[in-house]
Amino acid sequence: MSQEASRVGHHVTGVRPALDELSVTWQGGATYNDLHVFELQEPTRVIEWIGEKSVCVAGYENSRRNEILQLLLPQKLCVKEKQGLCPERDFKVERGGFSDRPVYSLRHVPDTSLLVTSGPPDSSLQVWQLAAEDTGVIKSVSTIPTGNDSKKPWAKIATTLARTSCVLHGSRVNNVQITEIESKKNIYTADPTPKGQHLYCQSQWLSHVQQLGLVVLGALGSAASSNSNEVSGLEFLDCNTWLACCVKGQLCLADVRQPQSPLGDTSVPSALSGEQWCMGVSSGLQGSDVNAPTIARLSSGGQLTLTDLRNIPKPLKSARCKVSAASQSAEFLCVSWAPVLDGCLAVSGFNGTVHIYDTRSWPVSGGEAESVFSHKGHIFSGMDNSSDFPLVTTHAWHPWKPRMLLSAASDGSLHVWDWAESHKDS
Amino acid sequence: MPEIKVTPLGAGQDVGRSCILVSIAGKNVMLDCGMHMGYNDDRRFPDFSYITQNGRLTDFLDCVIISHFHLDHCGALPYFSEMVGYDGPIYMTHPTKAICPILLEDYRKITVDKKGETNFFTSQMIKDCMKKVVAVHLHQTVQVDDELEIKAYYAGHVLGAAMFQIKVGSESVVYTGDYNMTPDRHLGAAWIDKCRPDLLISESTYATTIRDSKRCRERDFLKKVHESVERGGKVLIPVFALGRAQELCILLETFWERMNLKAPIYFSMGLTEKANHYYKLFITWTNQKIRKTFVQRNMFEFKHIKAFDRAFADNPGPMVVFATPGMLHAGQSLQIFRKWAGNEKNMVIMPGYCVQGTVGHKILSGQRKLEMEGRQILEVKMQVEYMSFSAHADAKGIMQLIRQAEPRNVLLVHGEAKKMEFLKQKIEQEFYVNCYMPANGETTTLFTSPNIPVDISLGLLKRERAIGLVPDSKKPKLMHGTLIMKDNSFRLVSPEQALKELGLGEHQLRFTCRVHIQDPRKEHEMVLRVYNHLKGVLKDYSVQHLPDGSIMVESILIQATAQSEDQGTKVLLVSWTYQDEELGSYLTSLLKKGLPQTTA
């Protein structure tokens, strides 16, 4: 509620441009190959792919029942090559369900018909089943409780194809755990008791590097306050290693087989404290080195840092995004790597825009980064006459169409766009 | 228990051939009488034998209502009224009445003249059928008979499209037909008041669809037309003559004006011209903007769009042509298509749904070699594009309309049942109503608890208000009166008025109670003591000592009798009418406690 209010306050002087302005840009610039504008009944902050033909979205309203929808992509946006006609350009609601709590995070468990969601007021997980074909209903299956500490923030979730019976979740680095979905059995917990008060020394990291082929950094001890190790993102790297990004910016890497070492990096990429951070992990599948995903971290101040997991303390590159105003809250911060376009990433959460950057062109210690493309559609999409600009809540890349993204905003708009490569950067 | 029964003969869990039977308070109404564009056999028309096996339809149906002029809503009408036989009233709006026979005639021509079917309705039958039609205005309450009334609301789907409220007594049903909740270039949005019907029957064509914005669709449409014209190609847009054609004409006209384009735009003579004529005629049915600018400039009088002549198709250079029919199954659009199909520079844009078996359907499903009449093979090299511009309510629109009308039950038709379970749950949970989706031939019965209105006489109302202290309109209030049921109406009046009206004498019911009081004094002294005591206790009441020695408290009479043998005991008779029961009982209990001793 307060976030809502502050957002309104922040943009209260903004005047929404006339709707026709955008259509002029479209005709003039011809910057899109495809642009489809949809309006959801309630805004979503999750866009999760279910296979290659559908996505899940869900409401995040606090005060009422929220919907979880599985939307079938328009045929036009799923076909590989142009074969005949694709008359359909609309989303179809394939399945739907109702959640009593807001959905802040939603993950599909690969190879199954299960969804796992989380959201306030606590860190428990909700498990859902995408029901058999013709009923069209998403059914609640179970809840995975995480103790009765109601002060815990909502849980971040990760799933992996390598371990489809399990879900990785947690709200703070020291309560990250892996739970078997069916039995609700907890099969791994990051060590909750604080270990050393100091960082591992350099030589120790290196031994870990040799041991795991990965860089792991100092233990997270009691030195870090409970707030500072709050997690903003979680990801499985393979079936045994996971990576967390803390709200304060630290990366934390752990190996499930060594339960005594939830290890982290307390070095914040930039000296700026008070900012909040999120991360995006490159899938690494199309890259040259499968074992070395690149981590992009984005701060609420617009700082972008790229890190190679083999050398966490020394960022590969960094740059500053052009953001007019630092994000009021990191609530919707989102950075993600393009699955096809090498070195490209998308950034959103500051305003109504999604920016695409090509990191290959960045110098090692870059200044301001120039975006390759900016999708401003959400600024214009709101049909209501409020002076409040919509804020992009999340975005997701199409799994194999190189330049296609889906993005959603706080006004309920959902856009699918495929930007045209300009001659300048080709 | 009163009930409403609904049986779809068509459009139950299906699109096409809309026809829904409704029984409400003993009245039978048929909503729409459509045909299925996908069939040529018996399934083309609804199965009217369901209504009656051997009797006359007129005896079973009180009226027929047609929501709009699309053939899947009115295409079976001449067959129904002239071939099966129905002579009762058929209701539709003025524009529907004007346009519907043109489309029926066009459809008849294609079926009989082109396809050579024989067992079909004739031109004369269409004319005879239309004679049975009663045209209605928006928001006009039409009395079908003494009890059944109907009222049309704006639906915004096509020109003249309406939603209908069907009402008998306090029970009512709203049928939406096809509707659109977002205004477009030439029509407004559907609207209904908070009429709280027992049942809302809503179409659900796009109930599970989240549509790409109209702006994006239009932009792509314009882009395609523009690109094609720029490279010197010819663009064919087969249209359904009425409805979306006008929307596209306005769109292209505006675009041509803005981009200063010179390529000619034509529309085929006949139908569309006639249609534009009707749009002009029924300008009040279009949207506000068109109505406003009508005086300065008629939106349907186009600067860039001219009438098409058959010879123009062979003219060199780019052009855009709107031609009927929309599915390329016959007529001018098919002729032009055959001429232009061989050139890859040309383009055909299908702006709507195509029925299986038509050329339109074939090219939309990717077929590139078509077998035409006389075994001739036509190779399609021109670009084929599809753009759906049909205007239906999506899930959001359906929810909006339910919110507007506040029905007690919802029934969905004109949509696929599969995938609708979620929408059903959504409606039930959000509005706490039941939601039904019957299949064709399946009857849904819902029980109603109708309110019975009762008139209260002014005298009674005034009297009750006089007694009550401060009238509070928000609180329910208990009233006493006499209910008179007479001449099919209910009235609540004062008992006096009821007696007078019904010529009855009044009977009085009195209670008399004996109260024994221990008092050795003389009778009149005792009465005086009682009087003083009551006067002291009942300060707010009128207490009188009458000359005959009795006491009156309001209308309650207290008398002393000396009949007791015991001198020390006196007997008081307390007497009150039934109406004063409360005070009478109170007085008796008061007196039974005896008199205070101190006054001695």
From TrEMBL, chain B:
- Any Pfam family from its record, for instance, is Beta-Casp
Q: Which cofactor does it need?
A: Zn(2+)
Query: Per the annotation, which location comes first and is thus the protein's main one?
Result: cytoplasm
Keywords from the named record: Cytoplasm, Hydrolase, Metal-binding, Nucleus, Zinc
- What's a Gene Ontology MF term here? hydrolase activity
| Every Metallo-beta-lactamase domain range | 16-210
Gene3D superfamilies recorded: 3.40.50.10890, Ribonuclease Z/Hydroxyacylglutathione hydrolase-like
Q: What SMART domains does the record tag this protein with?
A: Beta-Casp, Lactamase_B
Q: Name one GO biological process term.
A: transcription elongation by RNA polymerase II
Limits of the Beta-Casp domain: 245-363
InterPro entries per the UniProt record, alphabetical: Beta_Casp, INTS11-like_MBL-fold, IntS11_C, MBL, Metallo-B-lactamas, RibonucZ/Hydroxyglut_hydro, RMMBL
Q: Which GO terms describe its cellular component?
A: cytosol; INTAC complex; integrator complex; nucleoplasm
Superkingdom, taxonomy of origin: Eukaryota
What PANTHER family does the record point to? CLEAVAGE AND POLYADENYLATION SPECIFICITY FACTOR FAMILY MEMBER (PTHR11203), INTEGRATOR COMPLEX SUBUNIT 11 (PTHR11203:SF37)
Report what the protein is called: Integrator complex subunit 11
Give the originating organism. Answer: Gopherus evgoodei
The lineage is: Eukaryota, Metazoa, Chordata, Craniata, Vertebrata
Q: Which gene encodes it?
A: INTS11
